[in-house]
Amino acid sequence: MGIKSLFGFGQARDKPIRNYSNGEYSFNFGRSTSGKSVNEMTAMQTTAVYACVRILSEAIASLPIHVYRYKDGGKEMVCDHPLYTLLHDEPNPEMTSFVFRETLMSHLLIWGNAYAQIIRNGKGEVLSLYPLLPNKMSVERDRNGVLYYVYSRYTDENPNMKKMGDITLRQEDVLHIPGLGFDGLIGYSPTMSSMLYGLVPLM
User: Are 61 and 102 in contact (CB under 8 A)?
Assistant: First the structure.
């Protein structure tokens, strides 16, 4: 048995073509090994995928989270820091810390990236954190090599954005947690990789 047939690359439809465009990786694998077209949203309709994402997301969200300060070669927990309340209790008025971390973890597991918009006051202090949908986000570089983010907003999922269309966000206004990727900046979808190579069966 050759390498191509072993990994399912014997037919033209299964040959991966990887593109890097506008700061994003796209995977044009076509259909899965079952012959069904899949994406991150349809993958979540599979019981096994949903169960795995839910268990891992809830497990991470239930872990304790604290803010520490380095002191005299060690560290101490700081409960009076402004970020402690945001991370430990309530990142924004609409969700608890558990829900926020569960949401970001599910995004990381499904899309390979997790994003949150950082809302600041006039002094630059962080007031709140709001999750952003990874499938609507792209990462770009300007002519000076500085990263910025473009969020495609056509629904009312984020109360801090008033305009519709492509919204540019500065690097310092986005919390980006990338998963495993090719450049350490953009993660690729672990869910899609598993589905396309038959590690998780499609019903």
Answer: yes
Over residues 8-50, the pLDDT tens digits come to 444 443 433 333 333 344 444 444 445 556 666 766 767 888 8
**How many Å apart are CA 175 and CA 104, to the nearest integer?**
10
Element (H, E) at 26: strand 24-27
d(CA 102, CA 55): 10
CA angle 61, 47, 97 (to 5 degrees): 15
Q: What is the DSSP secondary-structure string of 62-128?
A: TS----EEEETTEEEE-SSSHHHIIIII-SBTTB-HHHHHHHHHHHHHHHSEEEEEEEE-TTS-EEE
Centroid of chain to Cα 54: 15
pTM value is 0.73
Helices 97-111 and 47-61, packing angle to 10 deg:
140
Q: Helix, strand or coil for residue 165?
A: strand
Structure tokens at 158: 């984020």
